[in-house]
Amino acid sequence: MYTADEKRYDTMPYNRCGNSGLLLPAVSLGLWHNFGSNGNFDNMEAMCRTAFDHGITHFDLANNYGPVSGAAEENFGRILEKGLGIYRDELVISTKAGYDMWPGPYGDWGSKKYLVASLDQSLKRMGLEYVDIYYHHRPDPQTPLEETARALDGIVKSGKALYVGISNYNKEQTIAIAGLFAQMGTPFIINQRKYSMLDRTIEQDGLKDYAAAHGIGVITFCPLAQGLLTDRYLQGIPADSRIRTDGRFLKEDAITDNTLWKIKQLQELAAGRGQTLAQMALAWILRDGDITSVLIGASRPAQILDNIGMTRNMGFSEEERKQIDGILA
User: How big, in percent rounded to 5, are the helix, strand and coil portions of the chain?
Assistant: First the structure.
C-alpha cells in the first residue's frame, strides 16, 4: 500500500534540473548497492515504497548495478510490476551505460552500438518503454566524443529517453560534450558526480561552479563517503560494515586518525543543529543551491527515513559554514 497522493509531496523540496522543465527531489534513491541478486527482494520493495511515500520520486540505476550486472534493473522492474509502476507518470527513472556489461568488444565504454544496445536491454529488464534520463556513465578516451553525443541525441529522438546526462565527466569534458549537445539541440540536463564533505573534487576542478553558471544540473553520489560521514565507524569497524562485507569501495585504510577527528568534530556540530551527522552531511551538499539532488543509498527503510529527515533543517549560518570549512581543511 502507498500513501494517499496528497500526502506524498508535503515535505520533500523539488529543484529544477538545470535549464530544463524537470524537477528532481532534493533526495533521490540510488540502487547501486543492496538491489542485486544477493539482496532480499521484500526489503528492496519496502525501501522503494518508503522512498516514494516520502516524496522521493527519482530512482537512479545503471546497467551494471548488481551483483550480478543487470540484477538491480531486473529487481526494480519487479517492484514496478508489483505496484510502483502504477505511478509511472509520477516517477523519474534513470539508468546509465559506460562500464563493462557483456563479453566481447561491444559491451563497454561509449560507442553508439553499446549505448543503444544497452538501453534496449535496460528497458527490457525494467519493463519500460522509456527512461526519463539516460546517462553516459564515464568518459571514453577512445571513442570520438561526437559519436557518443550523437548516440545519446538519437536515443532521445527515438523516444527511449526523455533527457540525457553524463556521469564522472570533469569540467573540461563537460564543456566539450555540452557544446556538441547544444549544436544538436539535445536535452542535456545533468552531470552525476561524486561529492561529499570528504571529497570536494567538483569544487576543485570547477565543475560545480561551471554547471551552476551554465544551466546544467548536478546530482551527487557517495554523499556520506560510503558511510564514513555517519557514526558507524567512531568506535571501530563493525563486522557487518561495508569495509568488512564488501571492501571494493571503502577500504580499512580510509579510517585514519585525522579522518576520525574530523568526523567527531562534525558530529558534535550536527548535534548542535539537532541533526544526525548523516543528515547534516546531506544538507551541506545542497547548502548553496548549486546541486540539484543528492543520491542516497540504503540497506533498509529506516535509513531512508533518517536521511530525508535532513529536509527539516537545510540552512547553514555563516558561522556554521566557517566551522565546517575549518574542520575539513
Answer: 45, 15, 40
